[in-house]
Amino acid sequence: MLHVVHHGDYVAPPPTRGSFAFDKYRLVMDAVKQLSDRHTVYAPHAMEREWLEAVHDPEYVDQVLSAAVPFEKERRIGFPVSQEIAQRVRFTSGGTWLAAKLALDHGYAANSAGGSHHALADTWAGYCVFNDLAVSANRLIAEGDASRILILDLDVHQGDGTASLLAGRSDIMTVSVHAERNFPVRKARSTLDIGLEDGTDDVRYLAKLAKHLPVLLDDFRPDLVLYQAGVDPHVNDRLGRLALTDEGLAARERFVIAQARGRKVPVASALGGGYGQDHQAVAMRHARSMLIMAAENRRR
Fold it and tell me: Which residues fall within 8 angstroms of residue 157, CB to CB, at 6 or more apart?
């Protein structure tokens, strides 16, 4: 059974400018329904302002929620912020937090959006407004749901915002495995960064993961893994520089769940990146990713 969080407001009306494909989130859920009838959908609440402000600058939070973001900040994200988008990013943050709560009960759960790992304290970049991973991790620890959280970011782009927002925390470990020559040009410092060469294929990618993930889990002993499960390392991704195949992505998901669940560590995934002219193909990659992880979780 796939436990997946989704809300109708994940699909915001397209803004007046920008190239981000907001229809991806509807297509992902359509793909899940097409591929399997073994799923339960949960609707999140909008993340409360106090938890957004616990991680982001309150003035910046106010700019977003009042849809009054300065133009120079809007240019960094790639689209303007409307009231609908302001509402959307509160729900996507609430969705990652709810997925984590569900994972604590079921072993694995997914948010069908989220993974906004470029969002910084007082600004945004790369289509990211609020950093749902950092916000959720902070809230989960503050409310006593976990003592140690590992944020495992396997998106093709480094999770610079997550690394910056959580720098210096001993109770949250940030790990990013990414294409070294891809966005952002200036990398932040995660607890562990693994930069990969352009064209890294299935074998080399999975070897890197196998070398590091078991050690990280054994040494840090997290209570929960928040997994940025971007599918943009795929060879056909428009913004990636790596060369994973469908089989490589599937092996990645099975390995992550097997390693975590073998140690009785629940995993909550956020959607992360995936880009291409064929939006349906990208949505299918995301849907297969979630369903593969749910199936692996059942085997544990």
Answer: 117, 118, 126, 178, 179, 182, 183, 184, 230, 232, 239, 273
